[in-house]
Design brief:
This protein has helices at residues 14-51, 54-57, 59-75, 81-88, 96-106, 116-134, 136-160, 180-194, 198-214, 218-245. The chain is an all-alpha fold. α7 crosses α10 (218-245). Residues 6-10 have low confidence and may be disordered.
Length: 253
């Protein structure tokens, strides 16, 4: 009479284990190809610049990091709070020219009630990558445009009122704008567009939409406005480049 072998709980049968071993290399190979397709061009662009040294590759990012850390320290001191608020705090209920003058510094003024380490980490990673692969001038332009888009949306939303789609309550006019986070989101989307990292870009957009759906606030809506502005700018730039590649046909006179 043949004996019945009892397996301990949790033991995988040999035939199932053999099947997993045969499938695993295929899954691993597909994952590796997907990762290379998604991030390979971006990593290839980063490697030579970072090989020369971080200080030489991303000096503007390090300066932004230092300025953000200083603003965070200053606004928590009795001698610095008022100065930081007057120079870099943008609200929708301020005159437009005041908001425009304060917007450049507002890029480096983090939220008072949130840990600064998250903002510093985002600036280091996203600003650093953008500075290398987009260039300093384009990085600054996109960061400023994203932040400005969020600020202007808050103004328009408050003016429309909460009863209109995409409108905002009047109380949001007294809330300080998103600070560096809108610039971080805009730069992340621009880098993903530039290197065709569509999955990563879609995840960034989905995260911002989920933020607004789960915890509605002004900062989340400003992030979405920054994304729309950057996508519109990237699309317009690509359309113009595509139009420039078309041969010009001169009609006979």
């Amino acid at each position: 009479m043949a004996r019945t072998r009892y397996r301990p709980a949790g033991e995988v049968p040999p035939h199932v284990l053999a099947r997993w071993c045969a499938v695993d290399p295929l899954i691993r190979d597909r994952l590796e190809r997907a990762v290379r397709a998604e991030w390979g061009p971006l990593l290839a662009a980063l490697r030579p610049a970072l090989g020369a040294g971080v200080l030489r590759a991303v000096p503007m990012t390090l300066a932004a990091l230092a300025l953000t850390a200083f603003c965070q320290f200053a606004q928590h001191q009795h001698w610095g709070y008022r100065a930081v608020q007057q120079l870099g705090a943008v609200r929708a209920d301020q005159p437009l020219w005041t908001g425009l003058l304060r917007t450049p510094l507002s890029l480096f003024v983090p939220a008072l009630d949130l840990p600064v380490w998250g903002a510093l980490a985002q600036i280091l990673v996203v600003f650093g990558i953008a500075e290398v692969v987009l260039g300093r001038r384009r990085m600054l332009l996109i960061a400023y445009a994203a932040s400005l888009a969020g600020t202007l949306y808050a103004r328009v939303g408050v003016a429309l009122g909460p009863d209109v789609p995409f409108g905002l309550p009047a109380a949001d006019g007294q809330v300080v704008d998103a600070g560096p986070s809108a610039a971080v989101v805009g730069l992340a989307v621009a880098v993903c567009w530039r290197y065709r990292a569509w999955t990563t870009g879609a995840l960034v957009v989905a995260a911002m939409v989920a933020e607004v759906a789960l915890a509605p606030n002004l900062a989340g809506r400003e992030h979405l406005a920054a994304i729309v502005a950057v996508l519109a700018g990237c699309g317009a730039a690509e359309a113009r480049a595509a139009a420039a590649r078309w041969p010009r046909v001169s009609l006979p006179r």
